[in-house]
Design goal:
The chain has 635 residues and is mostly beta strands. The longest helix is centred in the last third of the chain and has 11 residues, at 592-602.
Length: 635
């Protein structure tokens, strides 16, 4: 059993602004027809921006069809916010949020949301012994999942209000960590799914946002450009428009060439309307302004005029890079070459090996600096996260999940910052040694480090992984504790050191997840203390099942081995979201006290709780788990 899946997928950040005023920097251009009225005919509508994100997890891919996303007003009327069925691989959104659509909706008081998911053609991949394996989604009775409607109600104090001149924010979090259980003992592996949505009027997780779509116009004076929102490599449909703000520090890559600031915006203007764009940045919640840190355009956008492969290099042999468990995006939108477009619009996760060939004419760009640095192909080593641009070919003409090759000898490769987890063994000024646990979320057993060292004896050793830390402060580290580092593996054939770190996250700052389950029948007495200020789990309860742990990076803490039960408390400040999943209707809360009150009324001695999942941070000194979000599933 996969007892912990550090994975939380969000359909999030519906930014709603009245079309009658408000000064928003975003404007809608909804599709014709359907239940969503266009701007020109609706004088009392707001603009809805839907985005998607997710967090690090055990799933290598989790692709399902999102058929619809419906909002319900207090008067009972409903409004559809998605212009078309959208096929989404939630596992692709680990460190970012993506704008999904912009659609006008009538002003009013919204009290609930329903997402319809179709698992009929789901493509789910988990990692087993370092290898990607397929997993079959099933319901609680083991039956194959098909179409599922997931409804969540907002608490009475925090309805979504859309009114003229008043920007609003709404997030929907499809929490996979709380609602998916993986069993690797079956063939194929199975994922038992209890879909649920957590709703909030704020962004609970602050991450980079991505806006993708064809260029509409550029205003070099204002430092902005407008793009038609077209997420997930979609080649058509009108999904709304977003204004992207840039500044002197914005990094641009356009058709493989790097620019900074106004020079990049001018190059974007020269590229012309219709050019593919992808911007990464942040949303200023006060005025709903999207500020870009990085902008890609033209053939620098995956699938725009060229095939691409995204993933981690698990091995290298000369000029051939092996990527296993990769996302392939075809320029022509056809994965199987059968003459019909694939439902992903050319995007697919391959469980086989992808051989990426580079050469003397391959341009390699090292991201993470402004401007990005052009380096030699030798800089790409084992463990490196890459996006490779070239010509992709399946090993078998009908292959979708098997082996592929990509010829990048006349293309380019983008080296992305890579995150690693490990347990600290030792540290000195400017360097440390790890017991390496994972690279970009994949266990180290997936990687072959042969050839990474100056000699065979100096090849990277996961048991003693040497990291250059430069000026990073290592005084906060404790031997034996887990640590996260972000940076780049050193050039192939040049180790040691094995990794060049730019960012360090020590143990107290690592995100934590508490997971506990009480078996199929659940329990009517999960807590020894249940107050508005906090919850204390009853760890003496004999109905506690096999899952009872706190995950902090790669460390798993058995709750039953703690000297006492941890105290679950809300944070002192910042956005929060708590959900009670029930058979009749799930309900979400912003206030922890309201959540506990409702939970107390539900747990009346006859109702049982099946599982609880909380995300936040854990302080072992005072045995306190600060929960920024929590999902409780009732039987």
């Amino acid at each position: 059993m996969s007892t912990l899946s550090r994975f939380s997928a969000c359909i999030a950040a519906l930014v709603l602004t009245a079309c009658g005023g408000g000064g928003s920097s975003m404007s809608a251009n909804p599709p014709a027809g359907g239940t969503v009225p266009p701007d020109s005919s609706c004088s009392d509508c707001g603009t809805t921006f839907v985005t998607l994100t997710d967090a690090d997890g055990d799933f290598l891919s989790y692709t399902v069809d999102v058929v619809s996303l419906t909002l319900k007003r207090a008067n009972g009327t409903t409004v559809e916010t998605l212009p078309a069925t959208t096929r989404i691989d939630f596992a692709q959104y680990v460190d970012l949020t993506e704008f999904l659509t912009a659609a006008t909706i009538p002003n009013g008081d919204y009290v609930a949301a329903t997402m319809r998911l179709d698992y009929s053609n789901a493509d789910i991949t988990v990692e087993q012994n370092g290898a990607p394996v397929a997993a079959k989604p099933v319901d609680g009775q083991g039956a194959p999942l098909t179409t599922v409607d997931v409804t969540v109600k907002l608490d009475n104090k925090h309805h979504l209000v859309v009114a003229p001149g008043r920007p609003s924010l709404f997030t929907l979090d499809f929490n996979l960590a709380a609602t998916n259980s993986v069993d690797l003992t079956t063939s194929p592996a199975t994922v038992t799914v209890t879909p649920a949505l957590v709703a909030s009027l704020e962004l609970v997780d602050q991450k980079d946002l991505r806006v993708r779509g064809p260029l509409v116009s550029v205003d070099t004076t204002a430092g902005t450009y407008v793009a038609d929102v077209r997420p997930f490599n979609m080649h058509s449909m009108k999904w709304g428009r977003v204004t992207v703000h840039t500044d002197a520090n914005t990094d641009f890559e356009i058709n493989g060439t790097s620019y900074t600031g106004s020079a990049g915006l001018a190059a974007l203007a020269s590229a012309g309307a219709g050019t593919a764009t992808a911007a990464f940045g942040t949303l200023t919640t006060a005025d709903r302004e999207f500020d870009a840190k990085t902008v890609y355009a033209g053939t620098s956008v995956p699938g725009a005029g060229v095939d691409t492969v995204s993933g981690e290099v698990v091995a290298r042999n000369g000029s051939v890079l092996t990527v296993r468990g990769a996302t392939i995006v075809r320029n022509d939108g056809d994965m199987n070459k059968s003459g019909e477009d694939d439902a992903n619009d050319g995007m697919h996760f391959s469980r086989g090996q992808v051989q990426v060939t580079v050469g003397a004419n391959t341009k390699v760009v090292k991201a993470g600096t402004v401007p990005a640095t052009v380096v030699d192909i030798g800089a790409i080593s084992v463990g490196q996260s890459i996006v490779a641009f070239g010509k992709a070919t399946p090993a078998v003409s009908s292959s979708m999940s098997g082996d592929w090759s990509l010829d990048a000898t006349a293309g380019h490769v983008r080296m992305r910052e890579t995150s690693i987890y490990g347990f600290l063994k030792s540290a000195t000024d400017g360097a440390l040694t790890l017991q390496l646990d994972s690279i970009a979320g994949r266990k180290v057993k997936a990687f072959d480090f042969a050839g990474t060292g100056m000699t065979t004896a100096q090849d990277a050793d996961p048991a003693n992984y040497e990291v250059n830390t430069g000026a990073l402060d290592l005084s906060v580290l404790t031997p034996g504790e887990p640590t996260k580092l972000v940076g780049f593996p050193t050039a192939f054939g040049s180790a040691p050191p094995d990794f060049d770190a730019r960012t360090l996250v020590d143990f107290p700052r690592l995100p934590a997840q508490l997971t506990i389950a009480w078996g199929a029948q659940g329990t009517t007495a999960p807590f020894s203390t249940q107050e508005a200020t906090g919850l204390v789990l009853n760890l003496q309860n004999p109905q506690i099942g096999a899952i009872h742990l706190i995950g902090i990076g790669p460390r798993l803490v058995n709750l039953l081995t703690l000297p006492s039960s941890p105290h679950l408390v809300p944070p002192a400040s910042g956005p929060t979201a708590y959900l009670i999943v029930a058979r009749d209707a799930s309900q979400t809360f912003t206030d922890f006290g309201d959540f506990v009150t409702e939970l107390g009324s539900r747990l009346d001695g006859t109702s049982a709780i099946v599982s609880l999942t909380a995300t936040g941070s854990y302080n072992g000194d005072n045995n306190t788990f600060t929960a920024r979000s929590m999902v409780v599933i009732l039987k």
